[in-house]
Amino acid sequence: MAVASRLDTGRAFAKVLLPTVAKGVIVRRRGVTAVAEKVQADAAAVATMRRFRARYGPEPLRLRVTGRSVALLLDPVDVARLLADSPSPFALATREKKAALAHFQPHGVLISTGEERARRRAVNEDVLRPDKIDVPGIVADEADLLLRHVRSTGRLTWDAFAQAWWRAARRIVLGSFAREDVELTDVLKTLRGNANWAYLHPRRDALRERFEERLHAHLARQEPGSLASLGSPDELQGQAPHWLFAFDAAGIVTMRALAIGGEGEAGIWESARLWPTTPVILRESTEPTRWHGTWLPAGTTFVVFAPYFHRDPDRLSYADSYAPENWPAPSDPGLVPFSGGPGICPGRDLVLVAGSTMLDALRDHLAVPTLRAPLPATLNHFGLSFVTRGDG
Ligand code: HEM
């Protein structure tokens, strides 16, 4: 199996991994995201990955990292295997994720293992079902109010969109009583900001406790029509922080779908393919595993850099275009905006329903699309803004 030269290991960090970390894995940083768009950081990252594949072949590429075994996947078939064989022998709970998520969701399924993981996964699959509550109704309501604002200002900005989106998210997860609890999601954002720094940042347990108390008060109401009504408050308490946090990505994907003229659920899928909000999918092996005849030790970190698999022009004729016909069942196993296998995002249906309802409610009233092929590799959602259509 190929081992990257020292220079190429340096390139993997400088061009692929560190720029992704800098943008903020857990919560996006505004300034860095704007700079990343200016320099089109993802274009350089994808080009670097393509050179690795041309130089070293399709097998996982081992990086030279002292004291660690790290392998960068370069082939879609290997991506499919890694995700299919999760959580064992390829655990979702990697040391990076544990360090980052302990800041605000220490009991979340993503960093759980063994039987505890199985139990928590089942809770997520059970509750995160858009057919159990009226998600379209809630989102349509908030879209209506947002449209009133948009008509009066003549423009939809990210900040206006985000306010409406978070109202919808709080209503879906916790009920209408939580609709105006901006502080809840703001405190979560602060905790998430710390999570960006993973083990480098001290944990703020007092703030986390404040967040948890507030969250528990909402869950305890079990308001009919919300996800909170679908499980016991104690059971949901450990999982709901992830749900709230993950609605951020769903909003980002929805706003970007507007920019490309996306429609319906395929519009949401495509937006998530073109600009994956989970750009790095990590797994850590719990035992030695064999790849193309070579054994990699237990504890190897496997890295799937999604923008490469989603935007590789060597494999995908539509790499930089809007290609809704890919979905819902893409033929290429490297298209994994919601991950895949047993660890696939259990919230994806909820995202597709909520996102497409918002998208379809807004698109007819706005002058979209604002972007056409070739679509940019990096897109700063904070900077997106749409004017109303003359007849909207
Ligand atoms: C555009 C929006 C979203 C995208 C692109 C997305 C994508 C993903 C991906 C790629 C993973 C796998 C992470 C990994 O393997 O480390 C994941 C996991 C997860 N997602 Fe989402 N997600 C989104 C929104 C949501 C929402 C709104 C919820 C809940 C309401 C949610 C709930 C979860 C949960 C609970 C997990 C952990 C699953 C596990 O450990 O088995 N996601 N998501």
Walk me through this protein's architecture.
A hairpin with a 6-residue loop joins strand 1 and strand 2. Helix 7 packs antiparallel against helix 8, helix 8 packs antiparallel against helix 12 and helix 12 runs parallel beside helix 15. The chain is globular. 50% of the residues lie in helices and 8% in strands. The protein has 392 residues and is of the alpha+beta class. Strands 1-2-8-5-3 form a five-stranded mixed sheet, with helices on both faces. Bound molecules: protoporphyrin IX containing FE (HEM). The site of protoporphyrin IX containing FE has 26 residues, from helix 6, helix 12 and helix 15.
CATH architecture: Orthogonal Bundle
Radius of gyration: 21 Å
* Helix vs. strand class: alpha+beta
Question: What is the tally of beta strands?
Answer: 9
Key structural traits:
392 residues, 8% strand, Cytochrome p450, globular, 5-stranded mixed sheet, binds protoporphyrin IX containing FE, alpha+beta
A few lines on this structure:
With 392 residues, the chain is of the alpha+beta class. It is built from 15 helices and nine strands.
What's the structural blueprint in terms of helices and strands?
Elements: H1 6-23, H2 30-38, H3 41-56, E1 61-63, E2 70-72, H4 76-84, E3 90-91, H5 95-101, H6 114-127, H7 135-153, E4 155-157, H8 158-174, H9 182-195, H10 205-221, H11 233-237, H12 240-259, H13 264-274, E5 280-285, E6 289-291, E7 294-296, E8 301-305, H14 306-310, H15 348-363, E9 385-387
Parallel strand pairs: 2-8
Antiparallel strand pairs: 1-2, 3-5, 4-9, 5-8, 6-7
